[in-house]
Amino acid sequence: MDSHAEATVExxxxxxxxxxxxxxxxxxxxxxVVKANGYGHGAVPAAHAAVDGGxxxxxxxxVAEALELRRAGIDTPLLCLMAIGSDQHADAxxxxxxxxxxxxxxxxRIAAAAAGAGRRARVHLKADTGLSRGGATLADWPSVLETxxxxxxxxxxxxxxxWSHFASADDPGNPSIEAQLAAFKEALAVAEGAGITPQVRxxxxxxxxxxxxxxxxDLVRVGGGTYxxxxxxxxxxxxxxxxxxxxxxxxxxxxxxxxxxxSYGHRYTTSRETTLGLVPVGYADGIPRAAIxxxxxxxxxxxxxxxxxxxxxxxxxxxxxEPVAEGDEVVIFGPGDNGEPTAQEWGDTLGTISYEIVTxxxxxxxxxxxx
Length: 371
Prior knowledge:
The strands form 6 sheets. Strands 18-10-1-19 form a 4-stranded mixed sheet. It has a 4-stranded parallel sheet with strand order 4-3-2-9. Strands 5-6-7-8 form a 4-stranded parallel sheet. By secondary structure, it is an alpha/beta fold. It is built from 11 helices and 19 strands.
C-alpha cells in the first residue's frame, strides 16, 4: 500500500461469488450488476471478473456506464436498468446495449433513437408490481405493451425482456413478496395476450435470488451478491465472500495526558495518559461521521474504538499503551477472517446496509485490484 489508504479488491472473489450464484440459481442465468462503479469496486475489472465467473449478463444504470464497459472491450449482453430520457439512447443502441422502458413515451423515445442509430433497439419493458418507483402501473401497462407492439411491428425495437423489482425481498416472509410475484405473473400474462413474447423475464434481485426460488424466472439480477454482500438479515450466506478490504496507515502517533479532549467538539476525552493514532481517512472518503465511539477499526490484531468525531479527512483512535507507530496498518473493513469488521457490520451498527458503506468509499481512495 503506497498511499495513505487503499481499497483492495479481490477479483477472484468476485468470480467465485458469481460462479456460486450461478450454481445456486440454475437454470436461471445471472446478471451481475456493476452500476455505481461496480458498487465501488471498479466497474470494468468487476465486470471482467463477473463474466469470468459465469455471468451471462451485466447491468448498469446510465448509458455512460454501459459505454464505459463497451469501450473496455466487454461485449457481454448489457442492460441499462433505469429509463432516463436525457441519456444518449442512439449511442447505446449502436453499442448493442439493451434499454429499459417503463412508459409508452419512453418506448417511443427509444424507437426514435433506433431510427437514428440505424438498427433495432433491444428493450426491456418494466412493470411496476409494487415498488412504486420505475415501471408502468397495471393501469398503464396495456398502453406500454401496445406502443411496444407497434414499434416492434415497425422494425424499430425488439422486446428483449419484461421485468420488475422487489420492494422487500430482503425481509423474508414479507407479504409484499408474494403480492409482487402475483402482479408480475399477471403482467406477463397481459403481455402475452397483447402479442408480446419477451426473450427473458426477470424480477429477482440478490435477496430474492438467494431466498425466493419462485422469483428466478429466466434471469436474476445480482448486485451486492456479486461482491459478497447482501441485505438479508444477518448478511450474505457463508458461501459468498466480501471482495473489498479498506486499509489505511497511521499518519501520526502521539502520547497525550489524561483529560485531553479529542477531535471536533471534544466528544471524547482521554481517561488517562494514552497514545492517540491518526488514521488519514474521514467522511470525505466514505467513513460515516456517525461512527464515533464504535469498535469498527482493526489494528495490531484487535478491535479499537473510534475516539471522537470522525472528521472530513481523518479519524482518531485511542490505543492506550499499545506500542503503535506511524505507518502501522489499520483495517476499516474486510472479509472478517481475522476478526476485522466487515462492511455488513458497519452497516448493521450504523442502521444502514453494507451497499451504502462500499459504494460510499470516495474516489481519492485508490482501488488495488488483485487477481
